[in-house]
Amino acid sequence: ALLSRTAQFGPAVGALAGSIPQCGFSAAASALFSAGYLAPATLVAVFLATSDEAVPVMLAGGASAKNILALLIVKFVLAALGGYLLRCTEVRLDEPLEIELNACGCGEPLPNILGHTLKTSLFLFAVLLALDLVLLAVGEDRLASVLLGGSIFQPLLCAVLGLVPSCAMSVLLSELYVSGTISFGALVAGLSTGAGFGYIVLLEEKEGRRRAVPVILATFVLAAVGGTVTQLLFG
Fold first, then answer.
1. Looking at the predicted structure, is the pLDDT value of residue 143 above 50?
2. What predicted TM-score, i.e. pTM, was given to this entire model?
3. Looking at the predicted structure, is the pLDDT value of residue 164 above 90?
4. Which end of the chain, N or C, is less packed with Cβ atoms under 10 Å?
5. pLDDT, tens only, 85-105
6. Hey, how many other C-beta atoms are within 10 angstroms of the C-beta on 209?
């Protein structure tokens, strides 16, 4: 019922929810989208606003409250504007949501719900373990060396890096920013594509992958463009 009432404000609500520094919102939004209860533009807004573990890592690394507030504001504006831009340019993104509470799975037997939760948890564990092992093998120093410090292409590269579906990416990007390796614009781009668990949940079901690809592509383009503009304006 809440989603139905706020459908016209979807991108703004999605951007606000994604701004909360907690990785679970992107996963929850992906699940709602896969079930047909969330519009694509709103999901993109959630992804763009999500910062996963960035805020606590930046606080621990000595970043100022001003920098963190600026990051959250820039990402919220990018997410809201990006979501509404998608609504204006694609008719299908503006379709009204029709939610039937009896179709949401609320009446399913508890064993079915627990089974689905266990399946999703094991899938997440396997994927994240593999990604973390790859990151460990590559090494943060080697990864930082290929990010073209000071280049206008750095936000684009960080946006690509953010697509890796792991909370480790937000930690890595935050550490690179605090150490001065990447720019503020590159941080915005990387964290804007860094939806973490959201991508994994989105791609888990085979039948939903065709709908997921345009969402991920739109998120990447908006994040890369937004991060590049931010770098040009603020460094």
1. yes
2. 0.75
3. no
4. N
5. 888 875 444 444 433 333 444
6. 13
